[in-house]
User: Fold these one by one.
Assistant:
Number 1:
Amino acid sequence: MKNKIRVTKTFLPPQDEYQSILSRAWDKNWITNRGVLVEELENSLKTFLEVSNLIATTNGTLPLQIAIKALNLTGEIITTPFSYVATTSSIVWQGCTPVFVDIDPEYFTIDETKIEAAITKNTSAILATHVYGNPCNVLEIERIAKKHQLKVIYDAAHSFGVRYKGKSIFNFGDVSTCSFHATKIFHTGEGGAIFCKNKYYDDMFNYHNFGHNGEEEFHGLGINAKMSEPQAAMGLAMLPYLQLIFKEREVLTNLYNSKLKNSRIELLKIREGTDWNHSYYPVIFKTESQLLKVRLELEKRNIYPRRYFFPSLNKLPYLTYKSCPVSEKISALVLCLPLYPGLEESEANIITDIINANV
Ligand SMILES: *Cc1c(COP(=O)(O)O)cnc(C)c1O
């Protein structure tokens, strides 16, 4: 390959379309603090995603921190070790203790059958990730949370557009968060969103805007997580291309599936009842040395998959180690293949040929 092929490639809308949307911020001489573009993006996304509460934010990490703060969580938070580091670091940053529950060996989401054993009198919530856009067992988690009076937050950073049992996945839990980072399916460069039940909306909104109540009064403590107008303009410019983005990812996923179906690697199993968004294409090797060999061969061809997610988060150096054998095993064996609109069929074929020749 002449050009580097990475695990993803940021989708950029035509620059003139971005600029023509952005010119509306120029017309008003207003580039942040809830301008017209942020409000328009929030409304468009609410319609597109079929959610009733959405707050656009400056990234996908602050929403996790705000959710932990706004739900008054203290003590222990049960969480998954198989996610991006932001899931765990947000818990620690807010002064709470992450308690890892191992993952399901097929879906890679938190193993709901092991949650109850991890609950103590100090547990305040469950914070789980719909990893790769694959939903957690949300109904069982809801049952457990009700029984033990725990709050539920979903890190849904990978789940833009995912539906479960006919509903947006963002409608599950007390709060869900999403990332609109440039590496994610839908992006605003940096960006994100909070989704929540009606009763939490006002609190979440105030927290994301310094706790302001008008210009001179305050509801309480807050932080700055506001999305700016240039970010919102990028989001609005992406909207006309969403169907194309989802379609191209599905086509590439099907291509990979057909080329790898007889291979000695394991593929992601999507939970029944899910309309998936094809956000990642993870493959699970039999051994780590196989993974490293395939990665080396791909790198020789200028192709750079990523070890999403490695290491398993229970091994973070700032935490006391607790064993999570399934997550540690999957983390060591998983490689995410390049997947983005514009990846050529011939390029995907080279990737699968290299895998098939080396496993
Ligand atoms: C990307 C990501 C985040 C963080 O989002 P940012 O927008 O980069 O702050 C959080 N959790 C998961 C699972 C992610 O993949």
Number 2:
Amino acid sequence: MNLTPAVVLLLTWVSVCAAHFMSLPFSPARGLPWQHKSFGKLLEPCRPIGERLQRPIQPLLKPHKRPIRDFRLNATTRDIKLANYYDNLYYAPITIGTPGQTFNVAFDTETPITWVPSIHSPPRQIFRRITKKYNNESSSTYKANGKPFEVSYGPGLVLGYRSQDNMAIAGATVHNQTFGEAILEPKMFAGSMIDGVFGLGFSGINAGEELPVFDNMIMQGLLPAPVFSFYVKKYDSDGPESVLTLGGTNPDYYTGDFIFANLSMPDRWQFEIDRIQLSNDVGTSCLYKCQAVVDTGTSFIVGPSHEVEGLNEMLGAKPRAGDPKLYTLDHSQLDSLPDLEFIVNGQKLTIASKDYVSKGEKSGQYYSGIVGKEFKEGERPVWFLGFSFLRTYYTQFDKVKRRVGFAKAS
Ligand SMILES: *[C@@H]1O[C@H](CO)[C@@H](O)[C@H](O)[C@H]1NC(C)=O
Ligand SMILES: *[C@@H]1O[C@H](CO)[C@@H](O)[C@H](O)[C@H]1NC(C)=O
Ligand SMILES: *[C@@H]1O[C@H](CO)[C@@H](O)[C@H](O)[C@H]1NC(C)=O
Ligand SMILES: *[C@@H]1O[C@H](CO)[C@@H](O)[C@H](O)[C@H]1NC(C)=O
């Protein structure tokens, strides 16, 4: 990654990798350049999603070998307040081990495994200012596992091995949880506000991998339902702090009914969109349906370059000189911008222009938050609905009904 001026190191992973306007928090990037909030630097893409998309696609109906079941429906939902780092990164503490070692983690619906840095990582490999590392020697509940893991974040891999220990989150203790001890991390994590990533994606249960934390919480009777939900607050808005609810939804954070979409992939929070359009008949995209992923590792709305180019043209946004994946807008255009609408199951999800337009803090330049990504040949293009979508729509993720649901955030 060709970024990291020294100052950036003070900031988050995300900020390294993202920016208010264009921050694709972690995974983000999912293959985009963006501008750093405070420095106006163009950063390289963080994570091409290619690897994931190129995994063999399993037939949707193939049953999982280990379906989640056996709920003991006697627990209440658990709310976790999320710290908001300039709308780029939302994170909270978890502890691992006995006594507990605390780590700040971001919650990523596209990461399968939960990982934190290992005490056994070579000192030079993890360039953090404040490094918290899991120390297996000082936990009485540690059990070795040793199987390798890796997660790809664009320009680099997080590599390490698996271990097992108790993990505490939101007052619940998950026993015998397998997690990743990271030995190598890409530089993008240097100086980040977060130590690791809490995986809310699907791990390869079909491939015989261990259950993710959320699934174990269900299996161990710690949650009343196999559902989690995000309320994501804008940094400078009033209103309650951002919250992740484990075990269901919290009506304090949304109004009205949910619009549901069944998952279209066995191992991803992916669903079908009928159409994408701009209000007032300004234009349409995704004419023959398309696929989208709800992604808590992306700040913006990211789509295939050609579709994004069309939408931005209709908005009157211009490709940024030297970086045609980003589109700029003039202040004079802002008042007349249409809403961005996603039609899902015949119903409309609406993002107002104030929520998809961002202002570069330093440059004062306005940007369209609809950002293009090139997909490699053979890759199936998808849209990524990141925080700018989640700030408008409270979203629930249901692992057993295998669907996502959207309600207006309050
Ligand atoms: C801690 O982990 C290291 C590296 O995997 C291993 O060599 C060591 O035996 C472990 N310590 C305990 C107490 O199991
Ligand atoms: C965790 O592992 C220990 C020892 O292997 C076992 O006694 C305990 O029942 C396990 N707990 C759960 C919830 O699986
Ligand atoms: C709730 O579940 C726990 C196990 O997770 C069990 O020990 C407890 O008895 C249950 N309580 C009720 C009221 O069913
Ligand atoms: C979603 O899945 C459920 C259960 O599999 C099914 O009953 C329902 O008809 C599906 N909805 C749509 C819109 O396909």
